[in-house]
Design brief:
This protein has 147 residues and is an alpha+beta fold. The chain contains 4 helices and 5 strands, in the order H-H-E-H-E-E-H-E-E. The chain has a 5-stranded mixed beta sheet with strand order 1-2-3-5-4. Helix 1 runs antiparallel to helix 3 and helix 2 packs parallel to helix 3. The protein is globular, with a radius of gyration of 15 Å.
């Protein structure tokens, strides 16, 4: 799993360096492939919903993939969740990313946090990050990026 993920990340990083476009449908397929691996190797079922334009800028798509991958990695490392979701959609000139996971079974409940590296990456791109504890118990990291 680690070897395949590193290989994929290197491919996407190379595309970014070469400024090779990573259109919207490639982003959606890459996230779905990553979600399938998480299910196969770790038993985490990730629902992926995507409504991004095919002409999405390659740099934004590559950064979005990194953010989503890191968000799912955080779910794996920092929670006991067995279900998660990713939502990627364009709204005007903004790309909205949501990575969420089911409620924690810990007795202390959820605590406030900000995923530092995701927040730094989104701010470097002129975007923003927020974390929401929803009433249904899901924790959702919301990232907004300008397209």
């Amino acid at each position: 799993m680690a070897g395949m993920t590193v290989r994929d990340l290197r491919t996407y990083a190379d595309r970014l360096k070469e400024r090779t476009p990573m259109p919207g449908e490639v982003l959606a397929e890459a996230v779905k492939k990553h979600a399938e691996r998480l299910a196969r190797f770790y038993g985490i079922v990730v629902d992926v919903a995507s409504d991004v334009p095919a002409e999405l800028d390659g740099r934004v798509a590559a950064e979005a993939f990194q953010i989503v991958s890191e968000g799912l990695s955080n779910v794996l490392r920092h929670t006991a969740a067995k279900t998660a979701f990713v939502s990627m959609r364009a709204e005007g000139s903004t790309l909205l990313l949501h990575v969420g996971n089911e409620a924690s079974a810990s007795p202390s409940g959820a605590h406030a946090f900000t995923p530092r590296s995701i927040d730094e990456r989104s701010r470097a791109l002129g975007g923003s990050t927020a974390v929401q504890q929803r009433a249904d118990g899901y924790t959702v990291v919301q990232v907004t990026l300008p397209m």
